[in-house]
Design brief:
Blueprint lengths: L1 H74 L2 H12 L15
């Protein structure tokens, strides 16, 4: 009879050992998952900052594009062509009087 009792105790010890091992494995998996979750949150925060920066850059480029469209429209006007002709080519209208400074 004492042999049967020993087997039960040994069986209980194995089952306790199994429980402890399962608990340790579960804790290890939980720790690894927690670390990975923390890393994912950090990566997500970095991507959010990058996205905000890219949105600001996009907005600035859209404003720049609008300015260039306005400048392109301005370069097609008569006023712009007259200004370029006066400043770069020295041309004037027939009825304009030119005053030049005389230097000694």
């Amino acid at each position: 009879m004492s042999g049967v009792k020993k087997k039960k105790k040994k069986g209980r010890r194995v089952s306790r050992t199994n429980r402890v091992l399962l608990t340790l494995i579960a804790m290890f998996v939980l720790a690894v998952m927690s670390i990975q979750l923390f890393n994912l949150y950090q990566t997500d925060a970095a991507y959010a900052k990058k996205e905000q920066k890219l949105q600001r850059d996009l907005s600035a480029q859209m404003d720049r594009q609008e300015e260039l469209k306005n400048y392109e429209a301005y370069t097609q006007t008569q006023e712009y062509m007259e200004g370029v002709a006066k400043s770069k080519l020295g041309m004037v209208h027939k009825n304009e009087i030119i005053f030049r400074e005389i230097t000694d």
